Amino acid sequence: MASNGKQPAGAIATRWVEIGVAVALVVVGAIVILDSHRVGVGWAPDGPRSGYFPNIIGWILAAVGAWIVGETVYRWKSLESKVFVEREQLKPVLQMLLPTIAYVALVALIGIYVASMIYIGAFMRVQGRFGWLKSLAVAIAVPVAIFLLFEIWFLVPLPKGPVENLLGY
Amino acid sequence: MEEIGNLMHGFAVALTWHNLVFMLVGILLGVLIGVLPGLGGANGVAILLPLTFTMHPTSAIIMLSCIYWGALFGGAITSILFNIPGEPWSVATTFDGYPMAQQGRAGEALTAAFTSSFVGALFAVLMITFLAPLVAKFALKFGPPEYFAIQLLTFCSFVGMGREPPAKTIAAMMLGFALAAVGLDTMTGTLRMTFGQTQLLQGFDFLVAVIGLFGLGEIFLTMEEGLAFKGKSAKIDPAVVLRTWAQLPRLWVTSLRSCLVGCWMGVTPGGATPASFMSYGMARRFSKDGDKFGEGQIEGVVAPETAAHAAGTSALLPMLTLGIPGSPTAAVLLGGLMIWGLQPGPLLFVEQKEFVWGLIASMYLGNIAGLLIVLTTVPWWAAILRIPFAIIAPVIVVICAIGAYTVHNNMFDVVMMLGFGVMGYLFKKLRYPLAPLILALVLGDMAETSFRQSMLLSGGSMSIFFANALVGSIVTLAILLLCWPLIGYLLDRWRASQGRPKRA
Questions:
Q1: What is the spatial distance between Cα B80 and Cα B384, in angstroms, rounded to a whole number?
Q2: Is the pLDDT of residue B178 over 50?
Q3: Are B172 and B283 spatial neighbours (Cβ–Cβ below 8 Å)?
Q4: N or C: which end of chain A has fewer CB atoms below 10 A?
């Protein structure tokens, strides 16, 4: 991953992501500390209050996060050439992430079976450049297999929508 | 001996047709999971866990643990044939396994890998058989301070033995504890960190986290690498198997050393992945052909595979006897125990004899069955990997979504899985270890309870952790492990200043 000299244009530097994640850790730590103080970090008549243990955790988390920020800033120059992800690599990741977000939204709206059909079919058509026939075959076969396995054999209900209702489920 | 009698009884439990079928299904599913990218032992078992809620606990654990053995076997196939580790613990297997496959010795490498996996597992199961009842008996006397000390040791050993930067290990761990604290505090009934959101009342379920972190995160990473699976063809004919088996006894020192490393790393939760690297490194240092490692040495396959399997198996020892899992997959199995209504810990050996010994017997049978199955079915699994990733990826995402949903029949869990997936991708790339996060999420409530109970006993004084020799020495060992990276660093500095060559 590390390349020599200057990073290529259009790449995301590791040091920025590193700092971003570490700052997020500090923020989470701070939230934990604040909330622990809300419920009480001291002692009640019946023993330590609810915030007693999380308070300690929050402080360690914030401290370690701050340490990682400090370390990254300290080595800022030497980290210059480290590339977190290049634009050509980021593209396929987003091509996976964005449809998956849409898929999760679809599952909530129209149930898992139809959403999976659309998701698998579209992914194969667009990403894999498969023909209509092959894409449709897999897109239909997988949800049907899942339906048989979960709803029929193991009696585990999965989220369903209008189409399943029409079919009587 | 009492153990032998119990074990024989266990075999009687495991050897019913019913359980044998579950065992077989488990192994096949496990190898499939181990071969596919994005599905591994931990999240594979997590996804299938809801399907077992209605099953008898003994059958359920036999099937799920066999999935685990299968996944351990399966990881080696992709490492050797495709140079793609299907599981993190088989990364070290690629170093010499893939060169062997390139030289046309794939059959030999696979046979060596499977056989040494089997040897490692067998060693660990033997250890569990004879050591687990003793540990359980001993642990019956534990009070809250002892439990907290063991948990502290668990987490400190991640810092001391992990390959990731110590600060990041601690950060991942603390994040796990923080996430575990979300929701209802069972000791006082107070709501913590829910911020008025009813969705957060139940807190974060670690099964959802496992599926997101290991499943989706892995898929994103695989997409980034733009995978085109180009593998060596695989066929194992019996002659090659026999020839390889004839070679293996000569490597008994390597095997034994790897077994010991694996068991140690599995019991103190270093885990299978560091165990495999450590064992590979030691084999290279002690072998007389050390400089030829990386060019296709059979020892370089034997060492990591033996250790990984020994570690993976022995991780069940602390889970069964103390209720403290030694690896993420063991943690998922532990979650299963609780869902089936079994309380993990030393009492399990007293109250649920049939369950415990049925499981231990199934470890013997499952690994024998696993060895035979993978040796005979390698070509199929290699064929599965030739299915284009554009088909596999969406199908795995769908399976992950179903797995996350079925944990609580809750749509919000699917959204959280997505969040954990992105987090898994970022953490993996920045070298934050995921195993401590998962274990902290699982053990968070337990660790907190034992800590608070200890504090109650002592009235808030930390001195209770040094109150007797047992708890004191465990805590001291834990602190030593916690400081190990620092000690190592200082030693290096000191040696460098003495003008001696630096430690490798």
A1: 15
A2: yes
A3: no
A4: N
